[in-house]
Design a protein that fits this description.
alpha+beta, Jelly Rolls, Arc Repressor Mutant, subunit A, six-stranded antiparallel sheet, three-stranded antiparallel sheet, 10 helices, HTH_AraC, AraC family transcriptional regulator, transcription, DNA-binding transcription factor activity, DNA-binding
Length: about 290
C-alpha cells in the first residue's frame, strides 16, 4: 500500500512543481500532504473525494485544495480493467503557502490571496469562465520555465482569487483527524466500495475489510468521514448514476440497477434527496454536458 502521508513532491531546487499526468487511471489512494494543490482533469471520469465531500468528476473538473485536506480522484471501475482505449490525463500543481517568502501573505497586496488560501482549506471547485481561463494557464504552465513559470503561477492565483465562480466542497465543520494508519485503512474501504458498489455491500463485510467489528467500524467511519457508511455508499451510487444519466446510453430503470440500487422507488427517493432532482429532471438539465 502506498504511504498516505507522502513526502513533499516539490524538490528543494524549485519554488513549486507542475506535472502533466497520463496513466490508465488516477492514483487510487486516499491521501493528504502539506502542499496546496491545484488539479484539473483533462481526460477521464470517476468519483472525487475532498474531505467529507463526494461528487462525480469528468473532463474539465478543476479543484484547489489546501494543506492536509484528504482527497482522492477515483477513476470509474472500467479504467482498472485493462482497456487500452481508456486512460486518464490531468495537470497538477503543488506549492507551499510561503513559496514567495514567509512575510508575503501578511502584506496588503496579498489580501485576496489570503482569502483564497482560506477557502482552499475546504476544497474549491472552480467553474465557469474562471475554470476555462485557469485551464488555459495551467496548460501553458506545464512548458514554462524559470521565472516565467513563477509569474504564470502568480497570474493563475490572481485569477482564482478574484474570480467568483467556485463552490466550496467539504463541510465547514470538517477537520482532518486521520493518521497514516487511518488512511491506509480508509484506502482499503474506498477500494472495496469502488470495486463493488454496483453489488450488495453489507456493513459486516466492509467492517471485516477494516479489521473491525461492525459497531466499531460504524463509529470509526462516521468520525473520519463525517457521515455514516450508508450515506457514503449512497453518494457513491448516486454519483455513478449521474454519469450514466448524462451519457444517455441507458434508460432510468437500467441506470437504477447498474448503480447498485435494488428498487426503482428507492433509487428515485435517494436520487432526489442527494441531487434535489428526480432522475428524469436531472437528465434533461444536464444532458448537454460534455462527457469524454
Amino acid at each position: 500500500m502506498k504511504a498516505a502521508l507522502q513526502k513533499s513532491p516539490i524538490s528543494h531546487e524549485h519554488a513549486f512543481e507542475v506535472k502533466f499526468l497520463r496513466a490508465p487511471h488516477f492514483d487510487p489512494n486516499w491521501h493528504f500532504h502539506p502542499e496546496y494543490q491545484l488539479f484539473i482533469v483533462l481526460k477521464g471520469t470517476g468519483t472525487r473525494f475532498i474531505g467529507d465531500h463526494v461528487s462525480p468528476f469528468k473532463k474539465g473538473d478543476l479543484v484547489f485544495t489546501g494543506p492536509d485536506l484528504p482527497h482522492l480522484w477515483r477513476s470509474d471501475p472500467e479504467y482498472f480493467e485493462g482497456d487500452e482505449h481508456l486512460w486518464t490525463e490531468g495537470i497538477v500543481v503543488y506549492f507551499h503557502e510561503h513559496f514567495l517568502g514567509n512575510e508575503f501573505l501578511q502584506k496588503k497586496e496579498a489580501y485576496r490571496i489570503r482569502q483564497l488560501f482560506t477557502k482552499a482549506q475546504r476544497g474549491m471547485e472552480i467553474v465557469g469562465d474562471t475554470a476555462d481561463k485557469a485551464a488555459a494557464l495551467m496548460t501553458e504552465l506545464v512548458t514554462a520555465s524559470d521565472f516565467e513559470s513563477v509569474l504564470m503561477l502568480l497570474n493563475l492565483l490572481n485569477l482564482l482569487a478574484n474570480g467568483s465562480s467556485h463552490n466550496l466542497l467539504s463541510s465547514a465543520g470538517y477537520t482532518n483527524s486521520l493518521k497514516e494508519s487511518d488512511t491506509e485503512r480508509m484506502n482499503r474501504v474506498h477500494a472495496y466500495v469502488m470495486k463493488n458498489f454496483r453489488e450488495k455491500i453489507t456493513l459486516e463485510e466492509v467492517a471485516a475489510i477494516a479489521n473491525m467489528t461492525p459497531t466499531s467500524f460504524s463509529r470509526y467511519f462516521k468520525t473520519h468521514a463525517n457521515k455514516t457508511f450508508s450515506d457514503f455508499l449512497t453518494e457513491i451510487r448516486i454519483g455513478y448514476s449521474c454519469k450514466l444519466l448524462i451519457e444517455k446510453k441507458m434508460n432510468i430503470s437500467q441506470v437504477c440497477y447498474d448503480s447498485g440500487f435494488n428498487t426503482l422507488s428507492n433509487f428515485n427517493r435517494q436520487f432526489k434527496t442527494v441531487t434535489h432532482y428526480n432522475p428524469l429532471e436531472y437528465r434533461k438539465k444536464y444532458a448537454e454536458t460534455e462527457y469524454p
